[in-house]
Amino acid sequence: MPEGHTIHRYxxxxxxxxxxxxxxxxxxxxxxxxxxxxxxGRTLTAIKAHGKHLFYRWEGGETLHIHLGLFGRFRRHTIPxxxxxxxxxxxxxxxxxxxxxxxxxxxxxxxCRLVDPDTEASVRSRLGPDPLDDDSEIQKLKxxxxxxxxxxxxxxxxxxxxxVTAGIGNVYRAEALFLAGIDPQIPAKxxxxxxxxxxxxxxxxxxxxxxxxxxxITVDPTDVGAKRRSDLKKRERLxxxxxxxxxxxxxxxxxxxxxxxxxxxxxxxxxxPAGSGA
DNA sequence: GCTGCATGATGAA
DNA sequence: TCATCCTGCAGCA
Length: 278
Description:
Layout: H1 4-18, E1 22-26, H2 33-39, E2 42-50, E3 53-58, E4 63-67, E5 73-78, E6 93-98, E7 102-107, E8 111-115, H3 117-125, H4 137-149, H5 155-158, H6 170-180, H7 193-213, E9 256-260, E10 263-267
Antiparallel strand pairs: 1-2, 1-6, 2-3, 3-4, 4-8, 5-7, 6-7, 9-10
Helix pairs in contact: 1-7, 4-7, 6-7
The chain binds a DNA duplex (13 and 13 nucleotides) through α6.
């Protein structure tokens, strides 16, 4: 499920599977038929992730722009010796990309379209700094802080705004604010410099860990009596997300929930007391 | 089988 | 603030 860590992971894995190869493309569902027909047989020259957006660049200069939204997903199959053993794409499969050894099915994306390099650049220019991007850490942090300083919306809403920072979604916003001890309600511009720095470095650390592990794990194993992160059971991997009413793993206070920026948000009212982070 | 919900984002009102 | 688009699956009957 797609926050930035998943997207960067896809970019890397899809490049390993398909990079530099001539790719056969099709759209069983039909909604991307013309785009798939244009790409069919072309060589994939690069894959770039920015926040939750994916950009597949092809010989000939065009870019395939994909955004998974809430429902989009990729399915990957190694092509079996007998091609009849390959599970067929479902009727809803928007795009099939087949390389030498691997085929990828895409379903449910919010965006799947061909764009020119200028459009790719303009999409990216509207996104805030991505903690998983290779750009300079100092530069990204400065941009993040400047973006916060310009907003009076609550920090919990600002973190979901991809113009502020790109890649954080509803799980990471709740978990990062908990770990940083920040009240989700405080205005973004009121965040102290220390809290902003901490929030950025936590976001980076958590997203990196998520990309590596292939799942979101924010809990320090000692907080749940485990030795290693890999030992954590599914229900133990997060501090606050979807845990309303359950005891805080740090202090035992029941976790709170409310709505912010059209999504549920969870927090601990003792670890993140009103006004904390300012 | 049906219902509701979900790790997202936009555009209208 | 709401309605809408995108799809799958858990939880229920």
